[in-house]
Amino acid sequence: MVEVRMRVNGATATLDIEPQVSLLDALREHLGLTGAKKGCAQGACGACTVLADGERIVSCLALAVQYEGREITTVEGLADGERLHPLQEAFVAHDGLQCGYCTPGQLCSAVGMLAEHRAGTPSAVTERLAAPAAELSEAEIRERMSGNLCRCGAYNGIVAAIREVAATGEGVAG
């Protein structure tokens, strides 16, 4: 067993876990944070996406011990008390969810993706790599969110929600 300390959703967490425990399992089984889902357990579906120091990661492929001393944000940590994060509000308003299984990962990924875009990180479809971050096109959003799958097909609502929040700049870190 090893002791791992990290900040999760703003609170310090100390875990006594085996070194091979994934970050996803540490969050779900040891901290009771079940928002991040275990989908494929291979890093292909994005259902387990969380933010590590503001960057999106698939937590099923990360060992909890790798995140000693780091800040982890799960979907449970996006809201500000009773006030939903702007992306959560937009997902509801634009029907960016159906069954909801992928939604926590989609939301965390969208928060991280908007921060990446604001920082000028290009995607595979970015036309001018040296240009300042422009308005996110539908193609940019779809490419940047392609690591998060939705079996229900709520992609149109997800894209609309992200575009709305990107246009306002509200709730976008960076």
UniProtKB/TrEMBL annotation:
SUPFAM superfamilies: 2Fe-2S ferredoxin-like, CO dehydrogenase ISP C-domain like. It holds the Pfam family Fer2. This is Xanthine dehydrogenase YagT iron-sulfur-binding subunit. It comes from Nonomuraea muscovyensis. GO terms for molecular function: 2 iron, 2 sulfur cluster binding; metal ion binding; oxidoreductase activity, acting on the aldehyde or oxo group of donors. The keyword Ubl conjugation does not apply. It comes from the Bacteria. PROSITE patterns: 2FE2S_FER_1, 2FE2S_FER_2. Pathway: Alkaloid degradation; nicotine degradation. Gene3D superfamilies: 3.10.20.30, [2Fe-2S]-binding domain. InterPro entries: 2Fe-2S-bd, 2Fe-2S-bd_dom_sf, 2Fe-2S_ferredoxin-like_sf, 2Fe-2S_ferredoxin-type, 2Fe2S_fd_BS, Aldehyde_Oxdr_Iron-Sulfur, Beta-grasp_dom_sf. Residues 2-78 form the 2Fe-2S ferredoxin-type domain. Keywords: 2Fe-2S, Iron, Iron-sulfur, Metal-binding, Oxidoreductase. The keyword Iron-sulfur applies.
